[in-house]
Amino acid sequence: MSMRVRTSALTALTVAALAVGAVLTAPAAGAAPKAPTPKFLSASQLPPHPTSSWTAGPVTDGFPEELGLCVSTEGVPAYDYRHREFRTDLETSAVQLTVVTGTAAQAKALAKHYDDLIRTCADRIEESSPDVEAEGRDYGKLPVEEGARVRGLHTETSWGATDIALLSVGRDGRTVTVVEWGQMGDFGNAPVAAFKKTTSTAVDKLY
Questions:
Q1: Which long-range contacts (CB under 8 A, 24 or more apart) does 148-151 make?
Q2: Cβ neighbours of residue 22 closer than 8 Å, sequence gap 6 or more
Q3: What pLDDT is stored for residue 36 in this prediction?
Q4: Beta strand segments in the chain, E
Q5: What's the Cα-to-Cα distance from 41 to each of 50, 58, 191, rounded to whole Å?
Q6: SS3 breakdown of the chain: % helix, strand, coil, rounded to 5?
Q7: Which among 67, 169, 153, 32 is positioned nearest to 113, based on CA atoms?
Q8: pTM score, two decimals?
Q9: How many angstroms separate the CA atoms of 141 and 132, rounded?
Q10: Hey, is 168 helix, strand or coil?
Q11: For 90-105, what is each residue's pLDDT tens digit?
């Protein structure tokens, strides 16, 4: 998704994101056992671009700003957040987030929380940004590890900027991953089948 829509909507959405986080904030009974570090997608595992190859950035600690349009850390404990950004030579980008929680139950709650934020993202965008029309679509669940779900988001501004994003949330044990792909365009430009394959690979590849 281009930075034009991200910039206009990010501030208001960060404030609006979250009353449902309380279930995620209960402290663990003790220190969580050290888990193996989850693995990330490689550039070749992103949906193929018709005219440009993908470039993968380094794996970086912290929560990615690119997800801030729909997802945030508000109301969520300070888990182990890591992310990796991907680019093409054109205006297509992607990012993967991994979150290692303390228990499988916490990860299940976090995955639902993130999916709820993505599911309601279009409504929140329109409520906070009157100059933006947004539509979300549900592309269904994927049977990989503890499950994943894929959704789409299209936004169009009053000045004509139109962007399409595909987002997914998946879980393996106590680790959650979120993947986002975005570019200028509409639902007709979304590589849904390829993104589902990318999502399955991302969840399966974690461990």
A1: 148/199, 148/200, 148/203, 149/115, 150/192, 150/195, 150/196, 150/199, 151/115, 151/118, 151/119
A2: 75
A3: 82
A4: 55-56, 60-61, 80-87, 93-100, 132-142, 148-157, 162-172, 175-184
A5: 19, 11, 17
A6: 35, 30, 35
A7: 169
A8: 0.84
A9: 28
A10: strand
A11: 889 999 999 999 999 9
* Exposure on the CB side of residue 44, measured as CA atoms within 13 A: 0
Angle at 181 between CA 120 and CA 114, to 5 degrees: 35
Q: Which amino acid is at 41?
A: L
Is the dihedral angle over the CA atoms 17, 22, 24, 26 positive or is it negative?
positive
Is 207 a residue whose pLDDT tops 80? yes
- Token pair listed for 27: 């402290």
pLDDT per residue as tens digits for the range 124-167: 999 999 999 999 999 999 999 999 999 999 999 999 999 999 99
Degrees (nearest 5) of the Cα angle 207, 48, 192? 80
Task: Give residue 24's pLDDT.
Answer: 52
Q: Alpha-carbon distance 96 to 74, whole Å?
A: 18
Contact (CB, 8 A) for 150 and 192: yes
